[in-house]
Amino acid sequence: MTDVRIEDKELQASLVEQLRGWARALGFSQIGVADVDLSSAEPGLLAWLQDGFHGSMAYMATHGLRRARPAELVPGTVRVITARMDYLPRDLPDGWQAVEWQRLDEPTAAGVSLYARGRDYHKVLRNRLQKLADQLAAEVGPLGYRVFTDSAPVLEVELASRSGIGWRGKHTLTLHREAGSMFFLGEIYVDLPLPLSEPVSAHCGECRACIDVCPTGAIVAPYRVDARRCISYLTIEHDGAIPEDLRPLMGNRIYGCDDCQLVCPWNKFAQRSTLPDFDARAPLTHPDLLTLWRWTEDDFLRHTEGGPIRRIGFERWQRNIAVGLGNALRQVLTPEQDDEIRHALAARREAATELVREHIDWALRHAPRR
Questions:
Q1: Cα separation values, 191 from 11, 283, 305, Å
Q2: What does the alpha-carbon distance between residue 263 and residue 106 come to, in Å, rounded to a whole number?
Q3: Are residues 179 and 292 in the same domain?
Q4: How far is it, in rounded angstroms, from Cα 171 to Cα 231?
Q5: Are 67 and 185 in a shared domain?
Q6: Could you tell me if 177 and 55 lie in one domain?
Q7: Nearest to residue 29, comparing CAs of 269, 279, 284?
Q8: Which of 29, 58, 124, 233 is least crowded, fewest Cβ atoms below 10 Å from its Cβ?
Q9: Which structural domain, as residue segments, surrounds residue 25?
Q10: What is the pLDDT of residues 267-323, one digit of tens each?
Q11: Which long-range contacts (CB under 8 A, 24 or more apart) does 155-159 make?
Q12: In terms of DSSP H, where are the helices of 242-353?
């Protein structure tokens, strides 16, 4: 057992290399180490909150600057170990971006973000980060630590950027020159003074593809997203009625939105996952709106068990699909397809909740009869 609390830089650097080896064995692609002083990020965070860009995510404002102060969240923290885990399904074909664009162009297909088609990443990363922390503790002795995966007031992208995982893209996601942005981030807050990783320089240049492609104009400026307009927020975090002016812009996207990542030139280097956890489950391999709309709540719970989609609940799931079906009715369909969608929407109306019924009525009211 090594006590790295001594001021031995070689031992500390060696420990970080051990961490990287353990992490690779657990399915992580990259490890970095960040300092806990994020004070320079505080003004941007405050401005984002003051502009109301967090929408109904009240917890963002509740935690406030605590997100930028790791040592307040976990007293004693002096370093943050950051981790990257690639999530593209292992069997995804070459040219996968074109396949995804084609899916979004098919009115009756269902658009589900790539990351959400397999197992819930919170569970996958949390379990493996815990194992990594346990290995570290076994090596160094008593250790103060806590693991996070999108589960606490943590400035994940800021920490990832400072620790060399990548740079903040204009869509606000982390970008890596050899892995694009199709990866998850996780952190281990520790009380060990590990050597810091070197940050990398940004490589977005003059490109604004992600800004221009956003269906709802949610990327209001480089590095600034208004969550209230973001389809990922609207379909996942938002629990009320989706604003009517945004519904037509959502197309068939019923859970999340990958557009800003699909268009990003760096994602030609995106890496496949080494884990089976992120392989697409059968119901979400080639989903269509009508099939998903006909699910009962029991079907929904069964098909989404252990996956990230379950957390939005059946009501929001139906709300989102109702919008997708309404948008499909505005596209060029055969008379048979048009009739089938209208009948399916109307058949669910009476038993639907008030929220879902309102979106069904919108779908039928604003679609021209063929």
A1: 16, 44, 36
A2: 18
A3: no
A4: 13
A5: yes
A6: yes
A7: 269
A8: 58
A9: 9-190
A10: 999 999 999 999 999 899 999 999 999 999 999 999 999 999 999 999 999 999 999
A11: 155/38, 155/41, 155/45, 155/67, 155/68, 156/185, 156/187, 157/185, 158/38, 158/41, 158/68, 159/34, 159/38, 159/70, 159/80, 159/82, 159/185, 159/187
A12: 259-262, 289-293, 297-303, 313-328, 335-349
Query: Of 190, 219, 250, which marks where a domain is finished?
Result: 190
Which amino acid belongs to residue 64? G
Same domain, 37 and 160: yes
CB atoms within 10 A of CB 355: 17
Flag whether the pTM goes above 0.85: yes
Question: Is 213 a member of any domain?
Answer: no
Predicted confidence band of residue 153 (pLDDT cuts 50, 70, 90): confident
Cβ atoms within 10 Å, residue 286: 11
DSSP secondary-structure letter at 173? S
- Would 180 be classed as within a structural domain? yes
Quick check: is 275 in a domain?
A: no
Write out the catalytic residue numbers.
Answer: 150
Q: Are 247 and 323 in contact (CB under 8 A)?
A: yes
Statement: residue 4 has pLDDT above 90: no
- 350 belongs to a structural domain: yes
Q: How many domains does the chain have?
A: 2
Of 144, 168, 190, which residue constitutes the final position of a domain? Answer: 190
